[in-house]
Amino acid sequence: MPIFIVLLGPPGAGKGTQAQRVAKALDIPHISSGDIFRENIKKQTDLGKEANRFITKGELVPDDLTIAMIKERLSRTDCESGALLDGFPRTPAQAEALSKILSEFDGKVNAVPYINVAEHELIERLTGRWTCRAQGHVFHEKFNPPKRAGVCDFDGSELYQRDDDKVETVTRRIKVYLEQTMPLIEYYKKLGILIDINGEQTIDQVTANLLKALEKVK
Ligand code: ADP
Ligand code: ADP
Questions:
Q1: Which residue's C-alpha comes closest to atom 23 of ligand 1?
Q2: How many angstroms is it from 11 CA to the middle of ligand 2?
């Protein structure tokens, strides 16, 4: 049976950081909706141009575009054993669409770790985040610095600060999260698959907690 995991948490909680580690440990693809949008923006596709209008304002990209993009990604053969979703779903309509898509592949959402971090800590994490141009690896200037400033430890590519990581956009993104994504916590709690994870620990401790919790699910 495939295993599908949804990582939930506010912007800056550590979803991308943890998703890369957990996906590797479980040997399933890491699917980040934000990374796919940024890839499309870089290549200046129609989807990228449309999505960018919302992303620069800290708003969500409309559900229809986002759902179609994820559906296409999940239909690729590397998802036959499952996937770790990071940044999707973000609205109740996306969550409904996801269960429908997965049921077409004889799958379902098996577990939803929710990484919880206080708001003041999120702002500090996001405004100090440095992202790798090639593959989206993330670092933090204080909490998780790269070995050489401005260079990715994993692939040697340049690190940059995302436009939407400036303080005004970060504040808007957190507000959008509270209004539109928070309801998903209740939704998955009712399904009995939400797993609370304390995100205010070191990166290694959070990974250890996630892997331990997911061991029971497999
Ligand atoms: P998200 O994908 O949820 O937005 P990221 O994984 O990109 O979050 O992490 C946001 C920023 O916080 C990055 O700069 C990352 O290096 C840093 N970070 C991630 N986890 C921790 C942690 N446990 N403690 C301190 N900083 C962290
Ligand atoms: P973070 O990791 O900091 O939470 P992401 O990289 O996941 O940020 O997302 C960056 C931006 O991309 C979001 O602010 C939003 O504009 C857009 N986006 C990403 N995923 C979704 C989604 N599932 N639905 C709508 N918009 C999304």
A1: 203
A2: 8
Determine how β-strand 138-140 pairs with β-strand 129-132: antiparallel
Q: Helix (H, G, I), strand (E, B), or coil: what is residue 44?
A: coil
Residues 47 and 40: beta-carbon distance below 8 Å: yes
Residue of 60, 64, 117 with the most ligand 2 atoms within 8 Å of its CB, for mutation: 60
- Ligand number, closest to the Cα atom of 205: 1
218 pLDDT exceeds 70? no
Candidates 21, 72, 55, 61; CA nearest to 162 is 55
Q: What is the DSSP string of 54-96?
A: HHTTTPPPPHHHHHHHHHHHHTSGGGTTEEEEES---SHHHHH
Domains present along the chain, CATH in parentheses:
3-118+174-215 (3.40.50.300)
Interval between CA 108 and ligand 2 midpoint (Å) = 22
Residue 216 reports pLDDT greater than 90: no
The answer to whether the predicted template modeling score (pTM) of the entire model surpasses 0.85 is yes
Among all ligands shown, which has an atom nearest to the Cα of 206?
1
Task: Give backbone dihedrals phi and psi of 102, rounded to 5 degrees, phi first.
Answer: -65, -35
Instruction: Note if the bond before 2 is cis, omega within 30 degrees.
Output: no
